[in-house]
Amino acid sequence: MLCLDDKFGIWPLIEYNGWRYFPLPSMVGDVGKRLQQMKDFNSRDDDVILASCYKAGTHWIHEITSMLLNQTTEYNTKHWTSLNLQLEWPEDYKFAEAMSEQRLLQSHLPFEFLPTAHINKGAKIIYVSRNPKDRDVSMYNFLHGKIGWPDMTWNEYFDKFVLNDDIYGGWFNHAKQYIDAIKHKKANICQVLYEDMWLDPIKHTTRLADFLEVPYDDTFIKEVVKKCSFHELKNKKIDITVTIHPEGKSTLFRKGNIHPEGKSTLFRKGNIHPEGKSTLFRKGNIHPEGKSTLFRKEGKSTLFRKGNIHPEGKSTLFRKGKLGDWKNWFTVSQNEQFDALYRKEMKNVDVNFVFEPSGPI
């Protein structure tokens, strides 16, 4: 998630120690201090951290993990809780510290910034990774059209952000840190490759359940896999962002929203208020002038500017969910440049990504 308003936009990025970060409210100011706060986070024995680069399949694996931990096939609807458990997002950890239930934490930052206590006590870490070509294309589409993000073509993005890999510690650095930690057993990490889960979800959901040490049977695993398929997530998971867009369009899922007519399934008529009025954002209910007090700071939204995420209300979170989509974007020259960069950066790194299906899927 990214904050999108005049004060805390997603551009320009914050530069610190050779890397660039999105200017989240928590990261504005002393970045070094904030990163140290993450390392000092008071982790509990039963905490689970979901670690990944942006657009590596985080929300997909988060949903699977949430179902396994909670022993349910109901979708996680605690969106605000999930957001506040992303280690680099909140400005303080009061929300997380007040929780009594098991916490599923999340971070998009490299291994070096994970809580020291969590690593030292051997608490569980799920590392989600995805082949960098598909991930780069997904990242481009995620950022493209965001309010505040510079308008640029794929070719421009490739030169500025794919070859110059420096956002949030960079994909190569991120991957090498976690893979090195796994190889040398620096922490209790289960690696989940996006492509493996995509090609054989039963096998790898079962492996994830074993790592989490949760009870399961074949029926439960199959139901989790079914509920967490891309199609099911995209069409059935409650999407609260339709209440943010003035036309009720989804800013979470592209095409189809949640309701076949694009209507909100959370604040629809008769669902919460008998007259169909919103009890969360309606005029006079929370703020005397009808302003939202959920996503604002000093009267300004720190998450949604002008009421949406994408100027046309399109989803930038669940786009296609395909393997090998990069072939529709990379030119022959770009593919050759990237392959050369990959060979240089990932030399002697023990990981094998699937870059395209080997046959019909």
Distance between the termini: 31 Å
Give the oligomer, counting copies of the same chain as homo and different chains as hetero. single chain
Strand content: 5-15%
Number of strands: 8
Give helix and strand order, one letter per element, not per position.
EEHEHHHEHEHHHEHHHHEEH
Structural class: alpha/beta
Poorly predicted segments? 1-8, 240-319
What percent of the residues sit in helical stretches (DSSP H or I)? 25-40%
The average pLDDT value, as a whole number, equals 80
Strand line-up of the largest beta sheet: 4-3-5-6
Major sheet description: 4 strands, parallel
Tell me the Rg in angstroms: 20 Å
Shape: globular
SS field, number of helical segments? 13
Family: Belongs to the sulfotransferase 1 family.
Protein name: SULT6B1
GO molecular function, one term: sulfotransferase activity
Pfam family, one: Sulfotransfer_1
Question: Care to give the gist of this entry?
Answer:
This protein has helices spanning 31-39, 58-70, 79-84, 94-98, 116-120, 132-143, 154-162, 171-183, 194-199, 201-212, 218-227, 230-236, 332-345, and strands spanning 14-16, 19-21, 48-52, 104-107, 124-129, 188-193, 296-297, 300-301. It has 361 residues and is α/β, with parallel strands linked by helices. It comes from Mytilus edulis.
